[in-house]
Predict the 3D structure of the following.
Amino acid sequence: MESQQTEHDKNGLLSDTFWKRPQSALPGRPLQRVENEVMSGSSYQQFQASVNDAWDLGDDDIISGIAETKISKAISQTAALNVINSHRSKTLNKSEKRETEVIKKSEVRKNEPRKVSGGSGSGLRHYPGRPRPVRLSALSSREESSESKLERFQQLQDSSVVNLDELKQLSWSGIPVKARAVTWRLLAGYLPANTERRSETLERKRADYKHLVRQYYEAERDDDTYRQIHIDIPRMSPLVALFQQLTVQVMFERILYIWAIRHPASGYVQGINDLVTPFFMVFLQEAVPGDELDNFPLDKLTDEQRDIIEADSFWCLSKFLDSVQDNYIFAQLGIQYKVNQLKELIRRIDQPLHEHLQQHGVDYLQFSFRWMNNLLTREIPLACTIRLWDTYLAESDGFATFQLYVCAAFLLHWRERLMLEKDFQGLMILLQNVPTQNWTDSNISILVAEAYRLKFAFADAPNHLNAGKSDR
């Protein structure tokens, strides 16, 4: 019996050996021979206690040659930590690893302004639904590709018939400045896709606008509508000298008054004046490329140039607002409905944040009404608004639904700071004065990407927001 056992051990089949390795060579792996040395019981017990059955089938390579040496507690703990860290990295979606002191600093800095720009040293923690900072390398590569992107826009615009689907896809991630004015006219449905019809259509539509000015604005006006517009216009962007010029204010008055008269179901509503601004700035930039616009004297332009800017702003605004006109009808039911949808969406995405707002008496209507009414134009810099509208105009199914997800992503962006606020006043001050003064196009690219992710996540559940109808 003993001789048989000895012979058995000589063949390499050790009954007490913890790790059994196949003796045949595997493809791509050199043959490894295991010596016939049995581990002591005490070493095996230490090894088993430290790893606590944490090993996977593929983890044996980490401690290759374990049978050749006796296992100490220190060695086994180091190996176990390597395995755990390896597994943990796979479950974090390749997220950036941060040192412990960076996380602690981000928790301590309660009242310090936080940078949103990319970089590994930003000190911002990630949370579900939060847009991640853009790396500097990504920004530089985007800048390098801008020239080639401009060429693609010009090739599309010069086609005899523009492929609008391709143009929308290309515009979604941002439009180069030189191609923006023509692209916006195309995406708004104001400029025909057929190149041969463009000149005739623009000439006719601009003449139609002059006729509307004579018919409505220069004739007897509706006093109440005109008075409200006349009061609101000087309040628009008071820190921008351009909008304090009398010439600019009269142009805005005409655009808004004629739009209100032509849309009697809604009429003029405060906030629509902000929606003229992006179109006005894009078409002004087309007229004076390369000039600083904040202080540009509009009287330097010819009458024809000003007429083109005004008429194109009016028609593009009208096309743009067609899909959201119910936002501005009596009682603005469309916005109230969207506010309820936003509330339901945040409850589903981030219930702790939703409950935090509810517990401190913050109603979504108190902060998101302005987001919906002004399409975030008062929450972000004007240049960022223009970049955001590149994506809005490129949304093939209308931007109204997508804007809901943009507002959700915008709210989630401030989650960390909101959770640190412990009273109603602190929450409302932050929500009504979000620190976006240093935002750039890259921040908007992150925002719309996160909004798209949220929209895609709920693509298979189109009725997931219908709960808001009950509160309408």
